[in-house]
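Encode chain A's predicted structure.
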Amino acid sequence: MADNNKKPAGLTEKKANRRGAARLAAVQALYQMDIAGAGINDIFAEFESHWLGNEVEGDTYLPAEAAFFRDVVSGVVRDQKKLDPLIDEALSKGWPLKRIEAILRAVLRAGAYELQHRKDVPGRVVVSEYVDVANAFVDREETGMVNAVLDQIGRQFRGDEFGRG
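Encoded structure for chain A:
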């Protein structure tokens, strides 16, 4: 008997791709805010009109789920003072967040926010997605650090998914 409530595979995959694009855009936006001191409203306007789903300097950006993009960026901005100490605790001793490259700070903040607040997304998916985002910018050693830090944060907020310890 066929399951008529089942969604076509393409819809789920398309949503996942749009969320992945939103994560990449969110990290880029957070990086830009960190480096250039841009305000959140300017960032939203710029990314939504010029980046999301458009061609920029010869690169075509995938359409992104704008609401997800906005949630991650605004959530990180709102909760940064709570997120940064969590990330600091998960980093190796002697490597506080302020010593980490700005792009990695953006990746870790976005991932930590999503692990803490976006329970609609499985924790291991969050970690994997942000490792993939980091891979677009840094080498393998640094993506390993992203994986380890987000895994530790995931265990803190989603022990049932990750297993505690």
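Confidence is low (pLDDT under 50) at residues 1-13.
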